[in-house]
Please model this.
Amino acid sequence: MSDLKSIGYNDWFKSQSDNEQIAAHDVARIVSVHKDSYVITKGETEIFAELSGNLLYSTESATDLPTTGDWVYADFFDDDTHAIIYGVFPRKTILKRKAAGKLVDFQLIAANIDIAFIIQSLNDNFNLRRLERYLVMVNESNIEPVILLSKCDLMPKDEVDEIKEKVMIIAPQTTVIAFSNLNRDNIDSVTSSLKSGFTYCLLGSSGVGKTTFLNSIIGKDQFDTQSVSKIQSKGRHTTTSRQLIKLESGAMIIDTPGMRELGSMSVDDGLDETFSEILKLAQNCKFSNCSHSNEKGCSILAAIKDGILSEQRYQNYLKMKKESDFNQMSYLEKKKKDKSFGKLVKSAIKNKQR
Model:
């Protein structure tokens, strides 16, 4: 059990465990996912694993399958060189986004994250509206966000402070740290804040310096990095899969591939928390059914006119709210169809076996 504790197995997960599963199997954590296979650990060695037939058969969607950071029930064979996964623990937190493209479905990023480092670089990549999307995704998952502004060596300190002030306006309760992988500004302060037994993750677009930052806090070039395109100021993907890494401090961190698309899906709570000041303003409108478009006595329009609320921030909120409502409706319809189809397939298999 001590090895499990070292990789984050705490009282919350113990309370969520299934007594029958615990009696029949070992407990392990997902280190990484590779299409149909997994790498899991009990705290020391990492072992390749696959799903049991029953677990595969009983899943109704991709969200029922294990993802990086999940706790699972597993059996180990051949001196712990191979394992079979039989079930997944309830998740304390789950970081997910809308699948890229037109698909109306979730893509799981990682599970059981305590703190998410949202990284944006202080060059052409910096974008407050994109940062708001990351904050919505993290807040929806009930994960604590920390905003890291990389490459602070590229501009004067007063310009860095100005950008930090803009970030603090949209995320007043969030820790914001500017750092440099090149001269190690504030790297040590981030490293010293990492707590043993906590699980962190790195979020951000390609080229913001996530993998270089990871190498910096590890203290060696353990993971490959690539240069940023000078023509487009866009990074090349270095991380291609999500991987749980245990640090010397006892903290765990999951690096994630750069995201070119951040689709929102059913993120009402995340929107409410990220744009809380807009909801507060709406409560002060003269009319309860105010559309916030042209009514007299609209607190939101007044705040925009007085410069208290950014027009761009409000428009970004409306855009994400519209996307969320549409995607949620479409996803529920899709889930209903998938469930009906799954029952039809299972019924056909049973009839064939008779």
Summary: The longest helix spans residues 311-353. The chain has three domains: 2-88, 94-255, 268-349.
